[in-house]
Amino acid sequence: MNTTPVLQLKGINKIFPSVHALKDVDFSLRAGEIHALLGENGAGKSTLIKVMTGVYQRDGGDILLEGNPIFPNNTGDAQDLGISTVYQEVNLLPNLTVAQNIYLGREPRRFGLINWKKVNQDAAQLLKGYDLHIDVTLPLSHYSIAVQQLIAIARGVDMSAKVLILDEPTASLDADEVQSLFRIMRDLKARGIGIVFVTHFLDQVYAVCDRITILRSAELVGEFVAANLSRTELIGHMLGKELAELGEHKAQTNENRDEALLTLQGLGRNATLSAVDLQVCKGEVVGLAGLLGSGRTELCRLIFGVDKKHTGTVTFNGKAVNFSSPRDAIDAGMGLCPEDRKHDGILGQLSIRENMILARQIKQGWWKFISRKEQEEIANQYVKELSIATSDIEKPIEQLSGGNQQKVILARWLAANPSLLILDEPTRGIDIGAHAEIIRLIRKLCDQGLALVVASSELEELVAFSSKVIVLRDRNKVAELEGNDINPQRIMQAIAAS
Amino acid sequence: MFNPKFIPLAVTCALFFVLFGIGAIQFDGFGSSRVFFNLLSDNAFLIIAAVGMTFVILSGGIDLSVGAVIALTGVICSVLISKYQWHPLVVFPVVLIGGTAFGAIMGAIIHYYKMQPFIVTLAGMFFARGLASVISEESIPIEHEFYNQVAEFGFMLPGDAWIGTSTIICLLVLFVAIIIAHYTRFGGRVYAVGGDANSAALMGIPLAQTTIRIYAISAFLATLAGIVYSFYTFSGYSLAAVGVELDAIAAVVIGGTLLTGGYGYMFGTLMGVLIMGVVQTYISFDGTLSSWWTKIVIGLLLFCFIALQQLLVRGKPR
Predict the structure, then answer these.
(1) What CA–CA distances, in Å, run from B280 to A207, B134, B233, B291, B297?
(2) pLDDT tens-digit readout, A328-359
(3) Which domain holds residue B174?
(4) B177 in contact with A at a CB cutoff of 8 Å?
(5) I need a surface site. Which of A7, A417, B55, B145 has the fewest CB within 10 A?
(6) Is residue B290 within 8 Å of residue B312, measured between CB atoms?
(7) In A425-467, where do the E strands start and end?
(8) Assembly ipTM
(9) Domains in chain A, ordered, with CATH?
């Protein structure tokens, strides 16, 4: 391996009006290595990346690319210099064709006009190198996120990338797709490209990375060789504790078992989910396991009445129900925290207080006014109870971290006194500290007698709180695990085996 | 394989031929090349303005100043020509440069102050209309030998079809616009900005430059439309072309361009204007219907096209 760094950041400082976001951070990336950049949310990862890619201008320090100082003013500059970035939410253009996306802004021209034939041929040729044999003249939106991500990588690398930054590229991929991404990352590494890999998944760090740089609270913790850093040490560095407290939890068996709260019989919907039977008792947490696209989210939506069921019956609180909209489900005493918090969960511009009282207001009807005083009481109560880190309940919710936003949404439903809460990936994109807190919260709510249905792709998490785990595969329920069967190995087997 | 992205365009073209066919069957002389080319020459100024509007709407914006810019152009032209005795060929470059600068300023305000195009161009509309009225509230006739020459210039096609200056200008504009939109890097940027401005910026598209150019082009074409409009009226009037911006928007949408930006074709806009023209021609051939029926039919068409767009957007995988 080449030992001279291709990209070197020295003593980087970035100061925003209210925060000192980076304090004297160093980072060095060698050619032909995969380098993980880790840290909790708010540690400064994204700021550091934005400084590298020219989205932000540094307030101090040097950036050296192959030994020469550079001053990228925008992403275009950074790209020209050879620093490309691929983001989690694939920042390509869904309305343009695959080929247009790859060559946007640098289309081959003949006589001053774009030579579309060559654009399409070159694009197809380029993607073949990534094992993608697709029609490049179709719009990007025609393809899955995984394919779009590979296209973004192909675009980035083709623009003579020396440095490729992958910002949480695996967050929306399933296991197979992650493996093919890793294969490509290793290929690129062999071609001498330096790769910065940002992720929340520690397994993935150990699977592909050579070295690890950890940030915490805007400061550099250190740079480590992946092979010499144990997982416990790694988490310790990220959390700032010598030994992270990741207590094992033995799922409790519940005494009120027989009191069925929600019973599904053959619940299904054409083309999205085939018949599922399920029973949820009071004070129980049922975990939904399965890969992305296995039908977890679809089941959540079906129970809550977002999508209409085509088959089967739902019994809730002893009554047969047929929700035609979430409104009906809310009235009956359910709540849903959706997977995509940003789009479906929070109302970013509204304050914490306003976000919290929404569900209760809907349940009461819009005409019954909740007095300002009562609203404030509710908000203050939950801010305390769920230890939401904020100075002010009037702060717009978008200014909170992901973990705290999630808690506000939980509070929103708790304020409406539900008997069943459905959480779809409640810990997605949340840092480790808040993660543990949400899990504690789930256990606490369950102890208070609330029933929960929690979909998650993190097996340890499911094991930590579930008293029953339903495994879905290819839109079918394939297993129901209880008691001692609830462990990562068994769940994994059920997801994988046929 | 038929690409689904061409559906709105195909529907628009088919609709035009159906409407034209109905007229041709019902009335003698409707289905002639003369009527067809009259559609072009009668609506030349609208086609020119709508082409500019297409760039704006493709980028996800809107330009409400078009009608007012047409009126202002007419007033300035007539004052400079009739009052100050400038030659039209000197006046035209001056107003075109002025109009382009006006659009560029609106584009700059939209980009740098992160303002809604709706509100900025609304302000531009009031400004231009107001300025035109301040210059002259009366209609000013244009009397110049050059205008007579322009009106006489042209040639006859078989079937008594006349191709005049306005038709030639509007076809040239359309041709150049198609090349710019579909065969230059700038065209690609317009679609990119309309698809997702954030992503476009992250992919290295210069947003400021693109936005400013888009509104400059729209205003340039609105000014050109104003010049062509003065060829019809031989005058400049501050209350002329009221609501033309809305006609242009309607033509763009009927032409299959998505109001939210990112999808659509220049050629569709031509068809959109022609559909509106054919409806009007049908009603004047009929003779018994009030000409306001044109507006009602266009309203219904617009409604149908927006519904169709919604269906296509929803029907998309993912």
Answers:
(1) 69, 33, 19, 7, 9
(2) 888 888 888 887 777 777 787 888 888 888 88
(3) 45-242
(4) no
(5) B145
(6) no
(7) 451-455
(8) 0.85
(9) 5-95+139-239 (3.40.50.300), 255-496 (3.40.50.300)
